[in-house]
Amino acid sequence: ATVVAHELAHQWFGNLVTMKWWNDLWLNEGFASYIEYLGADIVAPEMRLMDQILNLELHDVFYLDSLPSSHAISTDIQNPIFEENFDRISYGKGCVLIRMMSNFLTAPTFRKGLANYFKDNAFSNAAQDDLWKALGNQAHADGVLDVGITVKQIMDTWTLQKGYPVVSVSLKDGSWEIRQEKFNLDRSFKVEKEEPLWWVPISFTSLDGDLKDSSVDLWLNDTSVTVSAPTDAADMVYIFNVGEEGYYRVNYDPETWQRIISDFPRLNYITRAQMYNDALNLARAGLMSYQLALQLMTNLETETDFVALRAADTEFLFFERMLGRDERFVQFQQFVRTVLQTVYDEVSTSNSTDFVDVRKRARIMKWACSVGNQDCIERALSQFSAWKSASTDYESAVEPDSKTWVYCYGIKYGTEEDWDLAWQRLQDTNVVLERQELIKGLGCTRDIAQIDKYLMKSINPQSTIRNQDKRYVYQAIGNSDESSGSQRMLEWLDTNWEEIKEFYKDTFVYNVKNMVLLYPETGNTPEQRDSLANFLKKHRAELG
Fold it and tell me: Is the dihedral angle over the CA atoms 117, 119, 120, 124 positive or is it negative?
């Protein structure tokens, strides 16, 4: 449904009105990415895609756009590098910026403005300024924006510079001081020029108010502003960036965070997802103590909503990768097992076929197995045993949504013979889902010898894995923490450089990228950093 909605959207965003040049690619792909959620939500509201946009788009792009390597969504493009603009920034950031515009302009004004944009530019080319003009004129006509404020003023700050702000809120003497600064996940990154500023749509409401009312209360277009707080602000928790409709993070003073933690059960699921994501990323950036962030995460003990759980799961992956070979990893695993126990008990005994319930069960089972939940591991081994015993129709032996965790942990805790059987069945089956899950599962092994075997088979001409699918092999190996998959793959690549280059020929550089892609995310020591740096230095001339 999402793919169909995305491609249908291109009849308007791309065909009826086409971008003037590649720097405005986001007008095509950002809008189509947003429409795919709207369209699919109408067809299948049970999938909750307008809620899942937080995890699938917003939080995903938050990470990429907080790195020094990000770029402005509208940037100067020179031939022949236009293809590089087809990335997560154009698609994902474009999607969530459009979501933000629809919110601060209100949906009716936004739709009327778009209709005028299509009418004025039909069968022609347009730039983002043409969109700003159409939306701005409608906003002024509807009284949504003051006449002294234009959409161009607001949106140029979001499209012509990379990154996004973190808005800090503190209460003092009956007033809120609201500040903005660029959010940098890399603590070592230093701003070389004047700190960028955005026009930030600030919304807020109390816990007694409507946590679905995300209308804009004020605009922050300077480094900071001091405004009078409501009279009950000293005793009542106020949530900023309601519904996480704005493309920014929010940080509170420690006292307010403590009050949020105490009142956490009163938050709706969207706000809980927002808090999980913001807290752990603020701690990672050094803007909040990990002690406070992890205290907030203890609320997972009563969390049952899929969207909120997924937000937490994604951020905990960073801990797993950084602590995987650390003595504190055992404590971390115990912490996660404890906070997940309630929802694990729910999903592990559920037979619900509701779409969201099925997706929640698959994610929680995989998460629980990854932190050593013994019951989960035993369930995986039991189902994997049934899969091994099925001489025919083995593709149907495990439920489709359980294949990821069953195959992964069946192979991880299995034998060499189990790995060989999975490889042989990968060669034999024509069922696409089975092939995809086996490719991922084979990379879960803890045995370095099997990792080496998998790598060599990836360049064996007799393998049935298509070259375009080899990236999934390398992603699976790169995610194999216990066997140090990324490190092993880098060593294998360096040792077998000429043989791999001969095998892949014109797609060699593309496949090298896939082999090293996860190394920076899984590496956590100075030695691993140096290994990657030395590798890139050694092969820079051939990689470009």
Answer: positive
